[in-house]
Amino acid sequence: MNERSFIAELMTNKQQQILIAAESIIAREGYQGLSMQKLAEEAGVAAGTIYRYYDNKEALTAQLVERIFCQVALVILKDAEKGTVEQRFRRLWWNVVEFDARTTTNQLSYEQALHLPGANSGQHLELLLSTFQPMRQILVDGVEAGMFKDIRVEILVATSIEPAVGLARRRQQGMKFSNNELSTAYDLCWHSILK
Amino acid sequence: MNERSFIAELMTNKQQQILIAAESIIAREGYQGLSMQKLAEEAGVAAGTIYRYYDNKEALTAQLVERIFCQVALVILKDAEKGTVEQRFRRLWWNVVEFDARTTTNQLSYEQALHLPGANSGQHLELLLSTFQPMRQILVDGVEAGMFKDIRVEILVATSIEPAVGLARRRQQGMKFSNNELSTAYDLCWHSILK
Amino acid sequence: MNERSFIAELMTNKQQQILIAAESIIAREGYQGLSMQKLAEEAGVAAGTIYRYYDNKEALTAQLVERIFCQVALVILKDAEKGTVEQRFRRLWWNVVEFDARTTTNQLSYEQALHLPGANSGQHLELLLSTFQPMRQILVDGVEAGMFKDIRVEILVATSIEPAVGLARRRQQGMKFSNNELSTAYDLCWHSILK
Amino acid sequence: MNERSFIAELMTNKQQQILIAAESIIAREGYQGLSMQKLAEEAGVAAGTIYRYYDNKEALTAQLVERIFCQVALVILKDAEKGTVEQRFRRLWWNVVEFDARTTTNQLSYEQALHLPGANSGQHLELLLSTFQPMRQILVDGVEAGMFKDIRVEILVATSIEPAVGLARRRQQGMKFSNNELSTAYDLCWHSILK
DNA sequence: GATGAATGAGCCTTCATTCAT
DNA sequence: AATGAATGAAGGCTCATTCAT
Predict the structure, then answer these.
(1) Of A66, B146, B182, D22, which residue is most buried, by most CB within 10 angstroms?
(2) Does residue D92 surpass a pLDDT of 60?
(3) How confident is the model at residue D103 (pLDDT cuts 50, 70, 90)?
(4) CB-nearest partner of B162 from A115, A163, A184
(5) Using an 8 Å Cβ cutoff, are D142 and D194 in contact?
(6) Domain end among A54, A77, A98
(7) Which Gene3D superfamilies does the UniProt entry name for this protein (chains A, B, C, D) (predicted)?
(8) Chain B partners of A185 at a C-beta cutoff of 8 Å?
């Protein structure tokens, strides 16, 4: 990598730098704590610089929401796209439950991102749907394989995955669960949707 | 009623007035939209008056969160405290799923309240736990009656109630479910925790 | 005057206070020099206080323009509303020429006010027209009395009053004229519109 | 043309380019609308480049004012430098009255330029005086020829030319005058200074 | 106890200017 | 000479909070 492209990459990264700093602040102090001045400090740039990359605070927030959705989807769906339906479902479920273990205190959770201003706009809901489509696909595949009950996917997701989300939230709030307990929970979820 | 208690009641009413106005504004415009000035207007009092009842905005928000938790608990647990375990569980589950249908546009949902600043403080988590204790009690009773699987209550709640919460959230986002579909979901939840 | 109304008047005056301070700053440093912070300091109030009286800087400027137009009209038309047409015209003409002598360095001139942002809006042009109507009336009366040439008033104003405005501007820029010279100018103007 | 002068000319062109762009922006959006960034864009150069030619915004504005004064003088004095005094005066007067008809929406008027920040500095007033000297000369010549009244030139200018300026301003504000009316005005001005 | 005018710190954003390339 | 990303002071404005009445 020559010097020029090195610099270029640094500059491109400035956008990322800002976004990461924003995430960090919100994770630490909530959205109320995010001021452009503080963000500039945390990102190590001047206040005005932020506006070279984002039209305004709203646009920055919007991109942050997108970023987090994608990151969450990546973690949730890790290694859950190949193998048998059972393997994929198991992978997905545990990824969800153990989600918090992978995030540092600098990272926003999916739940937090969902409640940033503007995260409920139609545009974002669409993004959510398409980002998490692979998750739904696992259940669709299970239904088509005659393995899962023949029910609307949303119901299957709510029944089998939502409990994992709830457990993850409880863990994030500090509640502890043994592997044994979590395994039991997994079994309940798994069997509840099996034909 | 003597003068003192009359005045006391007036004060209490004014406090309620303020809290209701705050809820209304947040439900309508989000927490960002809640300014003390606007709140005073909506509540029909002077700005300074709010500070007779609340030390500051944070204290007001905290009390609002408590209020909403209690209200939600009331709705969720409506008619779910007597009858057989099955009756109580059924009542609870459907109360959750149909929660949104009972709230007006002036009311904050449980989810929204959960994400107000400070709602995740240890103090509030404790309150949550005690407020929703009756819900846990239904499952505890079921376990003790030998009807539900003998598992830690949190797991049972996550498995059987969390799906209802997820469905309610989806409905609030505009997703539609038929009674048939919801009944199916109920059956899955119910059977998944039965011994 | 009791204490209450004294206070009330002080408060009402705060608006005037702000307007006067704004005029003073603009006269001294130009419109570019008018920042809300500086204005607050000069007016002896807090920055936020200005916004109790004016929605924004634009509204404040607009009212300032109106104020100055009215003030200028008052000075220009002083004692020019009674007497013969000749007396009234003479009064008007000299009021214009000596306008600058009456203004302190804290006051905006008519010319400066005319070039504040927004001063050319249709709304202000209308105000201008009605405010200076009494000036036009003097010429109208002269025409109807058969004393002035029977020409459109605008032409008469331009021919007889505009020179006075020009002389006033020159004096404001530091040029000196003797009474003799000014009297000669007056005669030229006066005779040019006489029948 | 050697390389040096070629480059010199390029620079000069770029300077002109910047100045023209600045005039265009101010004419369109007012002085408030002139930002160095926007200017760079409109002029087709980089923001930093402007600072090769002008020390700062103030210097640029100053030169713009000068440029416009010269341009205005050019238009005003067009064809007014030869012929009899009467011919020259007539030419001058009509050039002034019809000034607006010759300017495009990209050009600043004399009035606008007069009210740019700094346009009232002593330095500019001197420039004004020397730039418009040929105009004064017409009247001086008329006086020396025994044609005009033997009065200080400033008075003559104020009496005979200022009305034309006033009419031009009214036209720029949208007021309409017939050729007949303007001719009448011309006659008044002309005769008012004739011996 | 209630009022609401006043406060001023802090917010988001702009923009003249610099400087490494 | 030219670029344009970066700077950061300053701008207009909001709003939680105070306090004289």
Answers:
(1) D22
(2) yes
(3) confident
(4) A163
(5) no
(6) A54
(7) Tetracycline Repressor, domain 2
(8) 155, 158-159
Among D54, D72, D87, identify where a domain stops: D54
Which of A61, A159, A179 has the most B C-beta neighbours within 10 Å, making it the best mutation to test the interface with B?
Answer: A159
Query: Which CATH number covers residue C22?
Result: 1.10.10.60
Q: Are residues C138 and C71 in the same domain?
A: yes
Taking each helix axis from N to C end, the angle separating A153-160 and B162-172, rounded to the nearest 10 degrees, works out to 140
Give C51-87 as a 3 state SS string: HHHCCCHHHHHHHHHHHHHHHHHHHHCCCCCCCCHHH
Of all residues in chain D, the one with the smallest CA distance to C115 is D115
- C27-56 residues near strand E (Cβ < 7 Å): 45-49, 52
- The whole-chain average pLDDT of chain C stands at 90
Rounded distance between C-alpha atoms, residue B186 and residue A91, angstroms? 25
Which window residues (45-84, chain A) lie with Cβ within 7 Å of strand F?
A: 45-49, 51-52
Cβ–Cβ contact D154 with C under 8 A: yes
Q: Looking at the domain assignment, is residue A59 inside a domain? A: no
In the numeric block, the tokens 């273990």 are attached to A101
The model's confidence at residue A173, banded by pLDDT at 50, 70 and 90, is: confident
Q: Does A50 share its domain with A114? A: no
Query: A8 and A70, same structural domain?
Result: no
Nearest chain B residue to A126, by CA: B173
Among B112, B152, B188, most A C-beta atoms within 10 A, so best to mutate, is B188
The residues with which A148 forms a beta bridge, in sequence order, are: A194
pLDDT tens-digit profile, chain B (195 residues): 455 555 555 556 889 999 999 999 999 999 999 999 999 999 999 999 999 999 999 999 999 999 999 999 999 999 998 999 999 999 999 999 998 776 777 888 888 898 999 888 888 888 988 999 999 999 999 999 999 999 999 999 999 999 999 999 899 888 999 999 999 999 999 999 998
3-class secondary-structure state, position C194 = strand
Q: How far apart are CA A140 and CA B41, in angstroms?
A: 52
Query: Which strand F nucleotides have any atom less than 7 A from protein CB atoms?
Result: 1-21
- Asked if B83 and B160 sit in the same domain, the reply is yes
Range of the domain at A95: 64-193
Mark whether B45 and B75 lie in a shared domain.
Answer: no
Which residues face B188 on adjacent strands? none
Chain D residue at shortest CA distance from C172:
D120
B10 touches strand E (CB under 7 A): yes
Of C112, C117, C152, the CB nearest to D32: C117
In a shared domain, residues B73 and B136: yes
Average pLDDT of the segment spanning C40-67: 96
B42 and B75 in a single domain? The answer is no
Assess if residue A48 is contained within a domain: yes
Task: Let me know if chains A and D touch, i.e. at least 3 Cβ pairs under 8 angstroms.
Answer: no
Decide if C64 contacts C25 (C-beta within 8 A): no
What distance in Å separates the CA atoms of residue D43 and residue D60, rounded to the nearest whole number? Answer: 13
Is the domain of D116 the same as that of D152?
Answer: yes
Number of domains into which chain C is organized: 2
Q: What confidence tens digit (pLDDT) does each residue in C123-164 have?
A: 888 898 899 999 999 999 999 999 999 999 999 999 999 999
Interchain pair C159, D125: CB under 8 A: no
Amino acid at A39: L
- CATH code (residue D174): 1.10.357.10
Residue B59 placed within a domain:
no
Contacts of C123 in chain D (CB under 8 A): none
Contacts of D149 in chain C (CB under 8 A): 188
For residue B60, being part of any structural domain is answered with no
Interchain pair B30, A158: CB under 8 A: no
Number of helices (H), then strands (E), in chain A: 12, 0
